[in-house]
Amino acid sequence: MYYPVFRPRRLRQNETLRRLVRETHLRLDDLIQPLFVVHGRGVRQEISSMPGCFHLSVDELAKEAKEIAAMGIPGIILFGLPAAKDAVGSEAYAEDGVVQQAVRAVKDTVSDLLVMTDVCLCEYTSHGHCGVVERGQVKNDPTLELLARTALSHAEAGADVVAPSDMMDGRVSAIREALDEEGFEDTPIMAYSAKYASAFYGPFREAAAAAPQFGDRRTYQMDPANSDEALREVGLDLEEGADIVMVKPALPYLDIIWRVKQEFGGPIAAYHVSGEYAMLKAAGRLGWIDEERVLMETLTSIKRAGADLILTYAAKEAARLLENRP
Ligand code: PBG
Questions:
Q1: Atom of ligand 1 nearest to the CA of 212
Q2: Active site annotation includes 261
Q3: CATH (domain of 241)
Q4: Can you tell me the distance from the alpha carbon of 99 to that of 24, in angstroms, rounded to the nearest whole number?
Q5: Selection from 133, 130, 182 nearest residue 155 by Cα
Q6: Residue 37 is assigned to a structural domain of this protein
Q7: 206 domain-assigned
């Protein structure tokens, strides 16, 4: 079977042959576009460290959602910037909170787009942490009730999937219980299960104004050096009733995606996060890389590692490239 009998180059001779033997296919169906919603009307303001991403008011967001659905992208995930922040993140679970309004508006405008919501407190708390703070510490169990209320308020507004990103222990079962009690037993939970304490979230914290005001998130998000622990986290979330588990960030954690896929199968989501996006954009702008090719190679590698769905700020761009549209 060795050279010259087997010549691997035979099947690489032209694009038609390469297409025939290609193993991994990135598809429109794999993509989720994250969006940032703010109060006000007619707001469409670009986020400086995330070119091509915008702060959108509810009216603008509804238009954007319509366009995304028309492109064939199956879903969006919403992040909200509240009017005011307080110690317990009240707007996160307010009936007329910015995300709740956005969900209703999108659902009224487009019928065939999945609306996912990020369930967390950090954008809504004055201290910027993902949980309740007592004596300088982020408290796990008192946070669970607020997360459950947040998820329930999203479901009541019409969210199709709720996605807790806080990394408190036990949040998936707390949310599952709260949803089931109110008749939302069919609302899936996509859990940010292996979420690392990553510097790659930098631009997002500017975009969502959600940087912690003291300390960091290392007491609840995972140590980037750990891999076995990711399997325990994913296993726990699945036991608690998570329908989709997520690994985040994506590209620096392809090995984690791979291990989770081997151990548990799917569906697995991977979050190609703000810092990954910003690096791509920056190098592209400087002319140091071919941005489009690097983007598609990156997303393909995430898929090849085992991700079934990919949350990426470049979803629209990737969709255009997949469809060969200008
Ligand atoms: C909220 C949340 C964060 C991200 C998603 N949900 C920030 C964080 O945990 O610090 C990051 C997304 C990104 O960087 O693109 N907890």
A1: 10
A2: no
A3: 3.20.20.70
A4: 35
A5: 182
A6: yes
A7: yes
Is the pLDDT reported for residue 326 higher than 80? no
The rounded mean pLDDT for the chain is: 97
Q: Do 60 and 102 form a contact (C-beta atoms < 8 A)?
A: no
CB within 8 Å of 96: residues ≥ 6 apart: none
CB 33 near ligand 1, within 6 Å? no
Share of the chain above pLDDT 90, in %: 95
Check if 303 is active-site.
no
Render pLDDT for 28-44 as a digit per residue (tens, 0 to 9).
Answer: 999 999 999 999 999 99
Q: Is the pLDDT of residue 325 over 80?
A: no
Domain count of the fold of the chain: 1
- Is 112 domain-assigned? yes
Cα of 204 vs centre of ligand 1, distance in Å, is 6
Q: Is the CB of 130 under 6 A from ligand 1?
A: yes
Q: Is 198 in the pocket of ligand 1 (CB under 6 A)?
A: no
Q: Which atom of ligand 1 is nearest to the CA of 195?
A: 9
Strands 44-47 and 50-57: antiparallel
Q: Classify residue 268: in a domain, yes or no.
A: no
- Domain extent at residue 217: 23-246
